Amino acid sequence: MQNPADARVDAVSMDEIDAESAVALPNKEVLSLLDINANVDLGLDLAAPVDLAVAANLNVAAPIEAAASANVLSPDATAVGVAEQHGTLDQTISGSATATAPQHADVSQDSTGGQAVDPAAGTAGATPEGAAAGATEPATGATGADVTGGASNLLNGGSLLDANVNIDANANLAAPIDGAVAANANVAAPIDAAVSANIGSAGATAEALAPQELDIHQSLDNVTADATATQDASVNQQ
To answer: What is the dihedral of CA 152, 156, 159, 162, to 10 degrees?
Structure first.
């Protein structure tokens, strides 16, 4: 077994030391791992003319009658609920319901892109490479991205990830909407209810009576319902 003291130690020569090089790290306040500059340029023209007309002749009647009675844990108690409803209901509509919604819309839209901003310089200038030029075609757009970085960039005072993103989009949106509603209606909803309950009551009596007598007459005499929706829209998009 060889004695470690007798082992030959490889010394580093002066030439090898002179060949070594080192790079000083930047100050902590200028050291950045992530540097992202995003420029979003949107040109939007939105137009939504809405025209609506509603006409209605309505007879609405809703007589409601209710009775409720309850005995809870009450021995030999009696609960009686009676709801009686008697009546005559006459509904008559005579007339016309007319809804007219004429719409005349002239929409002119011009969506042009502005000057893009250079994310690296932070000033306005020409559109950078990789991004769409000031688009004049409707509903178009493009994106551009420039991603650099790395360990060498970080040691030189830059960022581990340096990304510049440019988005340039232009859109023209137009939605003319026209509607008309006309209605004649007779609505009647008589409701009669009776509730009686005995809960945990031995020998108790619960009675619920709900007699309902209604005479309902509904008529529509010489009625008309006219709905007219005329739309004249001129949309010019550039």
So the answer is: -70
